[in-house]
Specification:
- Helices cover about 45% and strands about 10% of the residues.
- The protein is of the alpha+beta class.
- The strands form 3 sheets. Strands 1-2-7-4 form a 4-stranded antiparallel beta sheet, with helices on both faces. It has a two-stranded parallel ribbon with strand order 3-8. Strands 5-6 form a two-stranded antiparallel ribbon.
- Strand 5 and strand 6 form a beta hairpin.
- It is elongated, with a radius of gyration of 23 Å.
Length: about 375
C-alpha cells in the first residue's frame, strides 16, 4: 500500500473526485460500526413485511454486518446522487389531473441508475486505488448492503418515518452507492433524526403501508406492488393505485425537507419528456419488442412487458376514460393470465353491467385459468 499519501489527503482527493463525477454528497463511516444495523431489518422480517422479496431474509446476516460481506473492509465511503425532478414537474399534479396518462416514479424517468452510479464509482475508486494501493469493492443497491443505515452513520442523512433516507442538503430525492475499502480513511459524524413530529409521509400514503412510524409493510406499498410483486394486484389496492404504473413517489414528495432539494447534475438522470406522463393508450399498445425498445436502458425494462401491462390496465380501469376500452379489451386474449385478469378488472370499471356481461359471454367459456375466471365472477358480482 502506498504510504506516501496521508489519510486526510486520500479522503480529500477521493471526495473531490466523487464530486467531479457528479455526486452531491460523499461521507465516510467505520466498516466495523455494526451497532443497530440489522434491527429495523429484523423487525421488517419478523412481521413478514418483505412479501415475496425472500432474498432479504436469506442475506440478513451479511446485510447487518459489512465485515461479513467483506472481512477486510475498514471504512465505507457512502455517496448520494440527486435525481430531484425539475421545477415544472409536480408528482401530485400528475396523479390528480392526468387520469388518461400513467405516472412513473421520478427515479425511473430516464436511465437505470444502477449502471450510471456504478460506472462513476468504479472510475473514482480506480483512481483511489492507483494513489493509495488500497483494495476496494463498489456496490449500488443490488448487493446485500444496507445503504440507508450505513449512509446515516456516514452522515449523509437519516432514515425518515417513511424508512427512506432524508438529507438536510438534498431532501428525499437521491440515490445511494458505496465504496468499501481496506484503507483507513478518517470517518465523519453520523446524522441524527430531524423528522420531529411531522407525519406528512405517513398520512399521504394511499394504501396505508406504514403500520407505525419508521416501519414499512412492503406488501401494501405501491412501489412493491407495481415493481416487485409478480401476481395479480389484490383488489383492495387497485383503486388506490390510481394511475401509478411504475412505483410511487407520494411519501417522498410529501416530505418538507424537499424544499432544499436541487435538481441533479447528471444529465442521464434528467427526465425524458415521454416518461413524465405517458399516454395509457400508447402504453397499452406495446408488444414485447416495442416495450423493450421503448424502455431500453430504463429500470422499467427489468419488470418485463406483462407486469408493466398489468399496471397499465389497472390505471386504465381507474381512468374513467371510455376511449381506452378497445385498447383494454384486446388484452383479454393475452397469453399471460395475469394480463387477462387485469383486463377483466379494467373493463369492469369502464363498462356498464350490460356491456360487461356481453363481453363476458364472448370470453368466459374459453377461459381455462382459475384466477381469470375468478376475476370475471367478481366483476359480474360487483356489477
Amino acid at each position: 500500500m502506498n504510504q506516501t499519501i496521508s489519510r486526510d489527503k486520500a479522503k480529500h482527493d477521493l471526495i473531490a473526485d466523487l464530486m467531479r463525477e457528479g455526486f452531491e454528497l460523499a461521507r465516510v463511516m467505520d466498516a466495523g460500526n455494526t451497532d443497530g444495523n440489522g434491527s429495523r431489518l429484523q423487525v421488517f422480517l419478523d412481521n413478514n413485511f418483505q412479501g415475496s422479496m425472500g432474498w432479504l431474509g436469506d442475506t440478513a446476516v451479511r446485510r447487518a454486518d459489512p465485515k461479513v460481506l467483506w472481512p477486510d473492509a475498514k471504512t465505507i465511503v457512502m455517496v448520494a446522487m440527486s435525481y430531484a425532478p425539475e421545477g415544472d414537474y409536480d408528482p401530485f399534479e400528475a396523479l390528480t389531473h392526468k387520469s388518461n396518462r400513467g405516472t412513473i416514479s421520478c427515479y425511473a424517468h430516464n436511465r437505470d441508475y444502477h449502471d450510471i452510479i456504478k460506472g462513476k464509482l468504479k472510475q473514482a475508486a480506480g483512481r483511489f486505488v492507483a494513489k493509495t494501493g488500497a483494495q476496494v469493492k463498489v456496490f449500488v443497491d443490488t448487493a446485500p448492503v444496507m445503504e440507508k443505515p450505513l449512509a446515516q452513520k456516514a452522515g449523509i442523512g437519516w432514515q425518515g418515518k417513511h424508512t427512506n433516507l432524508v438529507s438536510r442538503d438534498l431532501g428525499s430525492w437521491f440515490f445511494l452507492g458505496s465504496i468499501f475499502t481496506d484503507y483507513e480513511l478518517p470517518i465523519d459524524l453520523p446524522e441524527i433524526d430531524h423528522c420531529g413530529s411531522c407525519r406528512a409521509c405517513l398520512d399521504i400514503c394511499p394504501t396505508n403501508a406504514f403500520p407505525a412510524p419508521y416501519q414499512l409493510d412492503a406488501r401494501r406499498c405501491i412501489s412493491y406492488l407495481t415493481i416487485e410483486h409478480a401476481g395479480p394486484i389484490a383488489p383492495e389496492f387497485r383503486k388506490a393505485i390510481g394511475n401509478r404504473i411504475y412505483g410511487c413517489d407520494d411519501c417522498l414528495a410529501a416530505c418538507p425537507w424537499n424544499k432544499f432539494a436541487q435538481m441533479g447534475r447528471e444529465i442521464k438522470l434528467r427526465a425524458r419528456e415521454e416518461f413524465k406522463s405517458p399516454l395509457l393508450l400508447d402504453l397499452l399498445a406495446l408488444d414485447d419488442a416495442s416495450f423493450r425498445a421503448y424502455f431500453s436502458g430504463s429500470p422499467i425494462k427489468r419488470i418485463g412487458r406483462n407486469r408493466f401491462l398489468r399496471n397499465c390496465l389497472v390505471a386504465a380501469g381507474n381512468s374513467a376514460d371510455p376511449t381506452l376500452l378497445p385498447a383494454v379489451q384486446v388484452h383479454l386474449t393475452e397469453d399471460d393470465p395475469i394480463v387477462r385478469g387485469a383486463a377483466v378488472w379494467a373493463l369492469s370499471q369502464l363498462l356498464s353491467p350490460a356491456a360487461l356481461y356481453a363481453v363476458h359471454q364472448k370470453h368466459y367459456a374459453n377461459e381455462r385459468d382459475t384466477t381469470v375466471r375468478e376475476e370475471w365472477q367478481a366483476a359480474l358480482h360487483e356489477k
